[in-house]
Automatic annotation (TrEMBL), chain A:
Lineage top rank: taxon: Eukaryota
A biological process term (GO) from this entry: DNA repair
Entries under CDD domains matching the protein: PCNA
Keyword NAD tagged: no
Family classification: Belongs to the rad1 family.
Pfam families: Rad1 (PF02144)
Protein name stated in the entry: Cell cycle checkpoint protein RAD1
Subunit organization: Component of the toroidal 9-1-1 (RAD9-RAD1-HUS1) complex, composed of RAD9A, RAD1 and HUS1. The 9-1-1 complex associates with LIG1, POLB, FEN1, RAD17, HDAC1, RPA1 and RPA2. The 9-1-1 complex associates with the RAD17-RFC complex. RAD1 interacts with POLB, FEN1, HUS1, HUS1B, RAD9A and RAD9B. Interacts with DNAJC7. Interacts with RHNO1; interaction is direct.
Keyword terms of this UniProt record: DNA damage, DNA repair, Nucleus
From TrEMBL, chain B:
Lineage: Eukaryota, Metazoa, Spiralia, Lophotrochozoa, Annelida
Summary of subunit composition and partner proteins: Component of the toroidal 9-1-1 (RAD9-RAD1-HUS1) complex, composed of RAD9A, RAD1 and HUS1. The 9-1-1 complex associates with LIG1, POLB, FEN1, RAD17, HDAC1, RPA1 and RPA2. The 9-1-1 complex associates with the RAD17-RFC complex. HUS1 interacts with POLB, HDAC1, FEN1, PCNA and RAD9B. HUS1 does not interact with RAD17. Interacts with DNAJC7.
Family membership: Belongs to the HUS1 family.
Biological role: Component of the 9-1-1 cell-cycle checkpoint response complex that plays a major role in DNA repair. The 9-1-1 complex is recruited to DNA lesion upon damage by the RAD17-replication factor C (RFC) clamp loader complex. Acts then as a sliding clamp platform on DNA for several proteins involved in long-patch base excision repair (LP-BER).
GO cellular component terms attached to this protein's record: checkpoint clamp complex; cytosol; nucleolus; site of double-strand break
UniProt-listed Gene3D superfamilies: 3.70.10.10
Name of the protein: Checkpoint protein
Keyword RNA-binding (UniProt): no
InterPro entries: DNA_clamp_sf (IPR046938), HUS1 (IPR016580), HUS1/Mec3 (IPR007150)
Amino acid sequence: MSLSTQESDEDSNYVLVARLDNARTMANILKAVHFKDTAIIFASQNGLKVTVEDAKCVQANAFLQASLFQEFVIREDQVTFKVNLTVLLDCLNIFGTSQVGGVMTALKLCYTGYGNPICLLLEENGVLTDCSLTTQDPEETLDFNFSSTNVINKIIMKSECLKEAFSELDMTSEVLQILMSPDKPHFRLSTFGSAGSSHSDFPKESDMMESFQCEKTQSNRYKISLLKPSVKALMLSSRISLRMDRRGFLSMQYMIKTDDGQVCFVEYFCAPDEMEEIDEDACS
Amino acid sequence: MRFRGKLIDIGCIQHFTRVLITIAKLAKMCTLRITPNKLYFILSERVANGGVSIWCELMQGHFFNEYNMEGVNEEANEIFLELPPENLVRAMKTAQSAKSVKIKLTKKHSPCLTFEVEQPSLSSHSRTVVHDIPVHIIPRRLWDEFDEPEMPDFDISIYMPNARVLRNVVDRMKNLSNFVSISANQNGAMRVKVEADQVTVETHFKDLEYPTWSGPSDIGQRSRNRDPAEFVEARIDIRRLAQFLSGQQVNPSKIICNIVDTRVVHFFLLHDDVSLQYFMPAISL
């Protein structure tokens, strides 16, 4: 470890240097939050956090912890910048998205600091690609003020059974209603589309449930168009934790196993659709 | 004017189909030139439409078991037809397990290329599928427009890198910009680069080889006085390049890339009995 973190002279110009043996690991995790063109990247000693937001109602965060990288050096407490995520993904996948014959694309990411582009160096089988990607001033990100002390209902389950339910959501419905309750039906997803309503129930006794901690019946509606992008994260994940707080805000955390056996997390926050209903819920 | 040919070998039928697919991927309309020894597929686009040109030659003897043709007259023993290559592909798609394919120039309501595909049959009755493809006969006075494009005096002539890697790279770059710069030097290096507002991406290939030209001695003369490390560069339409890389089904072991600095990129595919040349004019900034 001490060898790989040794700085070469050229690296000392950078405030951030990250090396990864398999660039597809990073591309895969970023894909899980790729529902808007731009993303804000926060780098700290812990690693990278990539935040994507939409409509001031939904926020997705992908965490790439420092240990995921073969080398991760940061010379400031925090480095923040905004990039075009679509372009970043195209760069990371420059040698193609599928791995052929176990050949890995090595990545080196460097950033000289505010106002400068980020540089990506990718190498596969001796072919080298360098990318220089402009950065922009980061915007303020949303703070959902979601704290575990205010969480009323929490479920951890295997992603498998939700994959089908989410990928077949009736998109003619404007909202997805999520019910969490200590009583039957425990956990229900409902849509109200032009062809009728549909409900999917997941009883707490199901094999898929790993943990079921629900105190009170809560039923909230979320704009389906805002939740749909989370399917990307769901598809990659093996486990999901769903939490709802007092105000009806939804937190979904996805556990994603990378190709080299590490575990990464992606989380989505979403505000409920109807404010009035939340007030009622909060009072009852 | 007469033309009649017959393909029997299934390998030839499939190979011929692959050539047609390649042409159809590159051009909506093309010219088919029929001569006693060769078939040519020709495209020469007007500058306003991109100005690319294609010149594809097939030795008829390698494909056809029977081949008879009679041109316009004895001095001009050739036939020029204009047709959408996609229609030929459709006709040949039904022939992928055929016993034979006959291709004839016929006059039905209008001039047609008629494909008669004899399908395998278990009984003694033969099953035949017939396709009539309307074609336009190009009159003698317009033949000049379809002369073989002149080989430009290249600044560099180099073998292309691994087709799969290059195809992946160009497919990604296509999302970032409409143009791509291809440059190469005489040290075996090739660079493929796109520049856009938000990003600059450049892929470096090294240790590429050079074809040894046995052609006219003037080819390569321009490169002789040049510093081997110096790059020559041309900027071309990336969509057309991606189309060419992903569409070609001839699968030669090597593709030659010739560059005239800031003027033209010329790709040359040579595979046994087929040769395909693709000229892409450079686009200035």
